[in-house]
């Protein structure tokens, strides 16, 4: 299957993408991984992306599209893939259609993880990270530490990252509404959109998505 996963920040795309890709035996292709891999390997596209990023500029669509195209042409993606973070806007969605059509392929579904904006803010703004080890993550509501502000694992100080503040989260949501949300209507018009309620346990959300794909 060839699937695109969309949804606002904090909807759980990364988590769901990993579970769905495993269940469907297809590679999970995320924009973040593509950028890191190309930059670390020193590819031409990676060098271009790094130059923009170092200058504090957005990476142009053509660079992101080129990375995605190279990855989708790898042997392990021959039987399908799950795209996470790409396409990010309608121009990228149109480019993806062109790429697939050139290979005689098409998308099977676009899964939209739906979650209320206030819940997104609550999920992200409530995260607390250990200063000693960033792998130790807590949440003031969903996974609170035994002692407020103290890591259960090592006793380190817990803090809120700057990009997890409510103001920053709401700004990220505004960017999502402006740039990415239009692709929902784009894919709805093609009859590809499947909306998945993203509230509840991770396993429950995965089951909803798998059940929807089977239909």
Characterization of this structure:
This protein has 215 residues and is α/β, with parallel strands linked by helices. The chain contains nine helices and eight strands. It has helices at 13-24, 31-41, 44-54, 61-72, 90-102, 117-125, 166-180, 182-188, 202-214; strands at 2-6, 28-30, 81-84, 109-114, 127-130, 137-139, 158-159, 193-197. The strands form two sheets. Strands 2-3-1-4-8 form a five-stranded parallel β-sheet, with helices on both faces. A three-stranded antiparallel β-sheet has the order 6-5-7. Strand 5 and strand 6 (137-139) form a beta hairpin. Helix 1 (13-24) packs across helix 9 (202-214). The longest helix is centred in the last third of the chain and has 15 residues, at 166-180. It is globular. The model has no long low-confidence stretch (mean pLDDT 93).
Strand content: 5-15%
Distance between the termini: 13 Å
Q: What is the number of helices?
A: 9
* Total number of strands: 8
Main sheet makeup: 5 strands, parallel
Mean of pLDDT: 93
Write down the overall geometry: globular
Query: What strand order characterises the main sheet?
Result: 2-3-1-4-8
What is the gyration radius calculated from CA atoms?
18 Å
Helix content: 40-55%
Structural class: alpha/beta
Low-confidence stretches: none
Could you spell the SSE succession in H and E letters?
A: EHEHHHEHEHEEEHHEH
């Amino acid at each position: 299957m060839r699937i695109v996963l969309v949804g606002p920040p904090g909807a759980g795309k990364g988590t769901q993408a990993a579970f769905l890709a495993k269940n469907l035996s297809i590679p999970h292709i995320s924009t973040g991984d593509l950028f890191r891999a190309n930059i670390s390997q020193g590819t031409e596209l990676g060098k271009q992306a790094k130059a923009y990023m170092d200058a504090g500029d957005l990476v142009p669509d053509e660079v992101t599209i080129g990375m995605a195209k190279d990855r989708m042409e790898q042997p392990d993606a021959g039987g399908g893939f799950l795209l996470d973070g790409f396409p990010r806007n309608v121009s990228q969605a149109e480019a993806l259609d062109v790429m697939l059509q050139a290979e005689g392929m098409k998308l099977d579904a676009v899964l939209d993880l739906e979650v209320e904006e206030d819940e997104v803010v609550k999920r992200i703004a409530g995260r607390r990270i250990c200063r000693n080890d960033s792998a130790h993550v807590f949440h003031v509501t969903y996974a609170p530490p035994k002692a407020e502000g103290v890591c259960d694992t090592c006793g380190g100080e817990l803090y809120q990252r700057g990009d997890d503040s409510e103001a920053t989260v709401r700004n990220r949501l505004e960017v999502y509404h402006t740039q990415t949300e239009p692709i929902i209507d784009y894919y709805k018009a093609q009859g590809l959109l499947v909306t998945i309620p993203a509230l509840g346990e991770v396993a429950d959300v995965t089951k909803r998505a798998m059940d929807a794909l089977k239909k």
